[in-house]
Design brief:
Protein name: Protein I'm not dead yet isoform X2
Shape: globular
Organism: Drosophila pseudoobscura pseudoobscura
Membrane topology: Multi-pass membrane protein
Pfam families: Na_sulph_symp (PF00939)
Largest sheet: none
Distance between the termini: 38 Å
Number of domains: 1
Number of helices: 18
Subcellular location: Membrane
Number of strands: 0
Order of helices and strands: HHHHHHHHHHHHHHHHHH
Length: 370
């Protein structure tokens, strides 16, 4: 996200692409809305995260689904199961997304945006100069920057070793509790707020004499976090979590599963029913929450409903509520819901077709016991 924001800033300063729209802000003093090309880049970052998670066994919802499938299917579901099933839908979706985003936001279909981008493309020297000026302004890496990079790399390492799949990770240290991916992020956040925490740390460990004795800023101050956090989008994500939890406690998922079971659907109808439910619910609520709370109950309707329901949870293109990465990027970029809908409408429809088709064709190959 920060990389995309930095690139757009450089483009804006160089006059290649306008970062912000000419529209007036929704409220006086509020953050301006991004331009159409900027929206396209923000959505590309969102969708890249979704596409990468489709085949990753280390990232939810796949990680959660592997455990759930192993409990409910007779065969063994491993790290490569989702790779076998979803690699083709992922590639096809990449093609669709590239064309659709280019047409709707980057001027491929012509119009004013294409003209503006063509004019800006001729200003390559201005872009290079803007990058050089930015680098000179930022100066050499500070100790804060170096510590931040180290903490990010440590976080990646901890995420990879939490539950690698081919061996026990640190998630198995405690048999009574589950250490989810958020444990690592929470730990990193605490360190970012606490390091360096005091004058002694800077003076004696970093060998840099402070200009003024006393406390020093942490790597990440609360004021900066509070002013840059898209609280409205995060509350919207929290509402999605609450809806799934309430649906579980109110028996909504049980009612869906019982209704499907009593109707005695054919296999084809069950596949359509499960896929449609999964795709629709993922528009409104986070996919990982649906995987953990909804999929185990949907197995009560039979595997022909539960498996397509689970695979359809990767259809995360329509709204920011589908996954936290969408929420954070849309909030930070001030992308409005209708722009997310515009960018995700066609990819959502085609992804539904791709996932349903490959689940029907390769479901038994990918998931032993299906």
């Amino acid at each position: 996200m920060k990389v995309a924001l930095a690139v757009m800033t450089e483009f804006n300063e160089a006059g290649i692409v306008k970062m912000y729209s000419d529209e007036e802000p929704y409220e006086r003093g509020s953050k301006p809305y991004p331009s159409r090309p900027a929206v396209g880049i923000y959505l590309t970052v969102c969708y890249a995260s979704t596409l990468g998670g489709m085949i990753s066994p280390l990232q939810d919802p796949n990680e959660a689904l592997i455990g759930i499938f192993n409990k409910n299917l007779k065969g063994k579901v491993g790290a490569g199961s989702f790779l076998v099933l979803l690699i083709a839908p992922m590639i096809l979706s990449m093609i669709v997304l590239s064309l659709w985003i280019s047409c709707m936001f980057l001027g491929l279909a012509g119009g004013k945006v294409k003209q503006e981008l063509a004019e800006g493309a001729g200003n390559r020297d201005g872009f290079k100069q803007a990058v050089a000026d930015k680098g000179e302004k930022m100066g050499p890496w500070t100790i804060h920057t170096k510590l931040s990079l180290i903490l990010i790399l440590v976080t990646f390492l901890l995420m990879m070793t939490r539950k690698p799949g081919f061996m026990d990770g640190w998630d198995t240290i405690s048999k009574k509790t589950t250490n989810g991916p958020s444990v690592t992020i929470i730990g990193m956040s605490i360190l970012f707020f606490g390091i360096p925490a005091n004058y002694m740390f800077c003076k004696y460990y970093m060998c840099r004499q402070p200009k003024k004795e006393g406390s020093v800023p942490s790597l990440l101050g609360w004021k900066a976090v509070n002013s840059n956090t898209p609280w409205g989008h995060i509350f919207m994500l929290a509402a999605g979590f609450s809806c799934v939890f309430s649906g579980q406690k109110a028996g909504f998922f049980d009612w869906l599963a019982d209704s499907a079971k009593k109707s005695k659907m054919s296999k084809g109808t069950a596949l359509m029913y499960g896929s449609a439910l999964g795709a629709l619910m993922t528009i409104l609520a986070p996919a990982t929450t649906l995987a953990k709370l909804g999929v185990p109950i949907m197995f009560g309707a039979g595997k022909n409903v539960a498996v397509p329901f689970a695979t359809a949870l990767h259809n995360q293109f329509m709204l920011p509520t589908s996954t936290p990465s969408n929420t954070i990027i849309a909030g930070w970029g001030n992308v409005r819901p209708f722009q997310f809908l515009l960018g995700g409408l066609v990819p959502t429809i085609l992804m539904f077709v791709f996932i349903l088709g490959f689940t029907m064709a390769l479901g038994g190959t990918a998931f032993s016991g299906y």
